[in-house]
C-alpha cells in the first residue's frame, strides 16, 4: 500500500508539471511561499537572567557568550559576540577581562566551532589589546624599576610580569644596565636577565654591539653567568682593543669561564676570521622559517635598543659577518682584505636595514673609491651579496668619476662586470651608475651598457611565463591554467623557439621546463638558462615524471632558484608552485610595474645620448633598432620610441616611422608625432628609404581618397618630407662642374 501511495504521488507530480507546461505563457506562476523562520526557543530562567544583566564590558560580554553557548543558545551567544566586536573594547577592558576570566575562557572564543567566525574575530581583538598591554614600553619600564622595590610582593609581581613579557623585557633592562645613575638596580636587572634565560639570548647578543661600554660590561657578566658561548664572537675582539678597564675585566672573566683562558691577538684574529669565512660561505648559519626568512635581532644605534628584523638568510649572514669585520678592522686597520669585506658587509647592511636611501657620501668618505670598487667585484661572485652590490653601484655612480670605469689591469671595471650580473637589479644599478658618470670616451665594457639598456627597454609591464613542453596538448593545458592566474603564457616545444622566448623580453618572470623537450634535455636546458644573464636569476620549475622526482630534486638541490616538482592538476597547484618560485627570489624579485618604469628609463636615457651622438660615438646604438621597432606599436611608449627612432635615423627606423604614420588604425596624434620624428630623422641622415618604399608611399597616398582627412594630412606630410630633399634641384639646368 505504501508503494502504491508513493507511485500515486509521483504521477501527481508529473501531472502537475504537465499542467504547468500546458498553461498559457502569459499566466504568472504563483510565488512560492517564503519559508517560515523557526521561532527562537523559549528563554529558560538562566537565559532570562543573562539577558536581564545587560552585559556591556568586555568581561561581561565574554561571560555572557560562554554561558549562552553552554546553555545551548548559540544564537544569543553570537549576538553578544557581535556586540563585543562592535564595541571595539579598549586595552583596559581587555586586561580586565583577562584578569577576571583568565586566558582559558578567552581561548574558548576561538576554539568553540559553533561560535565561528565571530568567536575568532572577538578573541583576536582581545588578544591584540592584551599583547599591546604586555609589550607597552612604559609599563615594562615601571616593572623594571619595581625590581628594586622594598616590598617583596611588588618585586615578585614585577618578576612574574617581566617573565611573561619575554624578549620584550630586554630593552627596558638594557636601559637600566647602561645607566650609571641606576647602579643600585643593576644587580636585580642582571638577575632578571638570567631568569629570562633563552627568551633573552637573541636580543642580548644584539646588545653586545652597543657602544655603551658600561652596558656591554654588565651584559658580559650576564653571558658569563649563563655560560652563553654564542657571545664569544662578539666579545673577544673588544677584549683586545677596548681601553675601558671595567669592560676588559668583564670580558676577560667571561673568557675564563667559557674557554679557561684569555686569548691573545693572534688567536682572536684567527678565530674571528674563521667565523667571518663561515658567515660569508655557502652553508646556512641561521635557522629559517618556511619562507626561508630569518628573525634577527640587531642593535639600533640611534634608538639605543635591540630591534627584531625579518630578512632573507643571506642578509642575516652578511650583516652578522659585518659585526665581526668591524672588530677585525679595529684590531688591524691596515688589512686591505678585511676593509674590502667590511665595506661589502656595510653596504649590504645599508640596503637591508636602512628605511631611507643609504648615505652614499658617508660610504665614500669611510671606504674610498678603490675599496668600494673591489667590494663590488667581490660582491658579484655570490648572489647572497647582491644587495650590497646594488649599493656599491649606486655609491660609485654618485661619485661621478669616470676613472672608476678604467680597470688597473686593462680588463673590465667592477661596474662593467656588474652589467654582466645575472641579477636584474644589479645590472640596472650598474647601468644607472654609468649613466650618472656619463663617460664620453671609450671604456672596456661599453657594449655591455647598450645590451643592458636594450634588454630593459623590452619590458611592457606584463607578467610572462615561458613553457618548454614537447607534448602540445599538455603545453596548452599548462598555458590555460597559468593564464587563469593572470599570466601571459608563451608555450613552446623547447629548442631554439624556447630559448628565443626566454631571452627576448625582460617581462619573463618564471620558466617551466618539462620532460621531454624538443632538443636539449631538461637539466642541460636549465644550465644554458643559468649561464645567460637574461635568465640566470629567473626561477625555473622542472616538471618531472612522478617516478623521477627524487632524481631531479637531487640534481637541482644546489640551485635555490630551481624547483623540481610534479605536474600540477589545476590552477591552485600552479599557484602553490609559483609562490615557492617567487619566494626563492626574495627581495630581488622585480614587479611588472617596476619593469615597465625601467623600460621607460632606458628609452629616455638612450634618446638623451642620441641627441648629441658625437659625444658617444663609442656606443653602438643600432642594437636598439629591432627592439624599438617592435615596441613602437605599444601605445604606452609610442611617443618615446618614436623620438628614439627619429634620433637613430637608420633605414629601418625611418621605415618604421613611415609605416606607423601611414596606418589609419593607430591614434592620429601618435601618427602625427611619428611623421614629425621621420622628418627629424631625414634632417639628421637624409632619406634612407629605398625606391620601392617611396613608390609604395605614393601608392598609399593615392589610395587614401576615402580615408579621413587626418590620415590624408599625415600621408601628405610624409610625402612632403620624402620630396623635400629634391625641391631645390633644377632639372632644366646642367649640373655645376665638379658636382
TrEMBL record:
It comes from Blastopirellula marina. This is Response regulatory domain-containing protein. The keyword Transferase does not apply. InterPro entries: ARM-like, ARM-type_fold. Keywords: Signal. Residues 1-22 form the signal peptide. It comes from the Bacteria.
Amino acid at each position: 500500500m505504501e508503494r502504491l501511495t508513493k507511485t500515486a504521488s509521483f504521477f501527481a507530480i508529473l501531472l502537475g508539471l504537465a499542467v504547468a507546461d500546458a498553461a498559457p505563457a502569459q499566466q504568472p506562476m504563483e510565488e512560492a511561499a517564503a519559508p517560515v523562520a523557526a521561532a527562537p526557543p523559549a528563554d529558560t530562567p538562566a537565559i532570562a537572567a543573562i539577558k536581564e544583566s545587560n552585559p556591556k564590558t568586555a568581561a561581561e560580554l565574554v561571560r555572557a557568550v560562554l554561558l549562552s553557548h553552554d546553555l545551548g543558545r548559540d544564537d544569543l551567544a553570537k549576538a553578544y559576540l557581535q556586540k563585543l566586536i562592535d564595541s571595539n573594547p579598549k586595552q583596559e577592558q581587555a586586561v580586565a577581562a583577562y584578569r577576571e576570566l583568565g586566558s582559558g575562557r578567552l581561548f574558548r572564543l576561538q576554539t568553540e566551532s559553533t561560535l565561528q567566525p565571530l568567536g575568532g574575530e572577538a578573541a583576536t581583538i582581545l588578544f591584540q589589546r592584551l599583547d599591546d598591554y604586555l609589550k607597552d614600553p612604559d609599563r615594562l619600564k615601571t616593572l623594571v624599576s619595581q625590581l628594586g622595590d622594598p616590598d617583596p610582593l611588588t618585586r615578585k609581581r614585577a618578576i612574574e610580569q617581566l617573565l611573561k613579557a619575554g624578549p620584550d623585557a630586554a630593552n627596558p633592562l638594557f636601559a637600566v644596565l647602561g645607566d650609571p645613575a641606576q647602579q643600585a638596580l643593576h644587580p636585580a636587572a642582571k638577575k632578571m636577565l638570567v631568569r629570562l634565560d633563552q627568551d633573552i639570548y637573541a636580543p642580548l647578543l644584539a646588545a653586545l654591539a652597543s657602544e655603551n661600554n658600561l652596558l656591554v660590561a654588565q651584559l658580559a657578566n650576564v653571558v658569563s653567568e649563563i655560560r652563553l658561548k654564542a657571545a664569544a664572537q662578539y666579545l673577544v675582539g673588544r677584549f683586545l682593543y677596548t681601553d675601558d678597564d671595567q669592560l676588559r675585566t668583564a670580558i676577560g672573566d667571561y673568557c675564563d669561564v667559557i674557554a679557561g683562558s684569555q686569548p691573545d691577538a693572534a688567536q682572536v684574529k684567527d678565530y674571528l676570521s674563521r667565523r667571518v669565512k663561515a658567515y660569508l660561505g655557502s652553508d646556512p648559519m641561521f635557522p629559517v622559517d618556511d619562507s626561508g626568512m630569518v628573525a634577527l635581532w640587531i642593535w639600533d644605534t640611534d634608538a639605543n635598543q635591540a630591534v627584531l628584523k625579518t630578512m632573507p638568510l643571506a642578509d642575516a649572514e652578511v650583516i652578522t659577518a659585518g659585526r665581526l669585520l668591524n672588530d677585525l678592522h679595529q684590531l688591524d686597520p691596515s688589512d686591505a682584505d678585511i676593509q674590502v669585506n667590511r665595506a661589502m658587509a656595510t653596504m649590504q647592511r645599508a640596503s637591508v636595514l636602512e628605511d631611507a636611501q643609504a648615505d652614499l657620501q658617508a660610504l665614500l668618505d669611510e671606504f674610498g673609491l678603490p675599496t668600494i670598487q673591489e667590494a663590488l667585484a667581490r660582491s658579484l661572485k655570490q648572489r647572497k651579496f647582491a644587495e650590497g652590490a646594488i649599493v656599491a653601484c649606486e655609491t660609485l655612480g654618485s661619485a661621478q668619476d669616470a676613472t672608476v670605469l678604467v680597470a688597473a689591469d686593462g680588463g673590465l671595471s667592477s661596474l662593467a662586470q656588474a652589467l654582466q650580473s645575472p641579477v636584474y637589479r644589479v645590472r640596472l644599478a650598474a647601468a644607472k651608475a654609468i649613466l650618472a658618470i656619463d663617460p664620453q670616451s671609450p671604456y672596456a665594457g661599453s657594449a655591455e651598457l647598450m645590451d643592458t639598456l636594450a634588454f630593459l627597454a623590452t619590458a611592457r609591464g606584463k607578467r610572462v611565463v615561458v613553457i618548454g613542453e614537447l607534448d602540445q596538448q599538455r603545453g596548452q593545458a599548462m598555458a590555460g591554467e597559468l593564464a587563469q592566474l593572470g599570466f601571459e603564457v608563451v608555450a613552446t616545444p623547447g629548442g631554439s623557439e624556447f630559448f628565443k622566448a626566454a631571452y627576448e623580453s625582460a617581462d619573463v618572470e618564471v620558466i617551466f621546463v618539462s620532460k621531454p623537450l624538443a632538443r636539449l634535455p631538461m637539466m642541460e636546458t636549465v644550465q644554458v638558462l643559468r649561464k645567460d644573464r637574461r635568465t640566470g636569476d629567473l626561477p625555473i620549475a622542472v616538471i618531472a615524471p612522478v617516478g623521477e622526482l627524487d632524481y631531479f630534486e637531487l640534481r637541482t638541490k644546489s640551485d635555490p632558484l630551481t624547483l623540481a616538482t610534479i605536474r600540477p592538476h589545476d590552477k591552485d597547484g600552479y599557484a602553490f608552485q609559483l609562490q615557492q618560485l617567487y619566494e626563492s627570489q626574495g627581495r630581488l624579485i622585480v614587479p611588472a610595474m617596476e619593469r615597465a618604469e625601467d623600460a621607460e628609463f632606458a628609452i629616455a636615457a638612450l634618446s638623451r645620448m642620441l641627441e648629441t651622438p658625437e659625444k658617444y660615438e663609442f656606443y653602438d646604438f643600432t642594437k636598439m633598432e629591432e627592439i624599438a621597432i617592435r615596441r613602437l606599436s605599444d601605445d604606452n611608449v609610442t611617443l618615446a620610441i618614436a623620438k628614439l627612432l627619429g634620433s637613430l635615423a637608420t633605414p629601418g627606423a625611418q621605415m618604421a616611422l613611415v609605416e606607423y604614420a601611414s596606418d589609419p588604425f593607430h591614434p592620429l596624434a601618435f601618427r602625427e608625432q611619428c611623421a614629425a620624428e621621420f622628418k627629424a630623422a631625414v634632417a639628421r641622415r637624409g632619406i634612407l628609404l629605398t625606391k620601392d618604399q617611396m613608390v609604395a608611399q605614393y601608392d598609399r597616398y593615392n589610395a587614401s581618397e576615402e580615408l579621413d582627412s587626418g590620415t590624408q594630412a599625415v600621408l601628405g606630410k610624409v610625402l612632403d618630407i620624402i620630396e623635400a630633399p629634391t625641391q631645390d634641384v633644377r632639372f632644366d639646368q646642367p649640373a655645376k662642374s665638379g658636382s
